Fold:
Amino acid sequence: MVGVSLRRRMVPLGAALVWAVLLLGGPAAQSAPQPQRVAFALRRVTVHMPSSNAQFPAGAAQTLASSQCVICHSADMVLLQPRLRQAQWRTIIGKMRSVYGAPLPAADVDALAAYLAQVLPEGTH
Ligand code: HEC
Structure:
């Protein structure tokens, strides 16, 4: 009688032991890749990005340029280009829209291209 009841108690204990071995030390745990130790140190760096306060000159599409063409870069990116014709500006603005995703409405492209062809300061080329 004593032996039977002991054996009954031993079964769940044995099952638990098998599970523990499988979970903790089983083949999966042994073949798991060991994390590599990578030595690194964090340090503070200071980066000075070029800043620019350049403004688009007065003109018909100044507001358009000041709102649409400084979303991703400074006005200097536009103002320091060589003087270009309207058709060339149309091409560049088209690239800003189609390649980089500038949200300028298609209906505004011509007006902006005309403005940029007209107002870009002399001496920037
Ligand atoms: C409609 C207003 C507008 C004008 C005008 C404009 N951008 Fe750009 N622009 C860029 C990126 C990116 C470059 C850099 C391309 C490179 O370095 O090759 C760039 C470069 C330029 C250049 C340099 C010459 C060239 O062809 O790369 C000009 C000129 C220019 N942009 C004009 C992303 C934008 C974005 C982001 C969605 C907006 C908005 C944007 N641009 C709006 C405008």
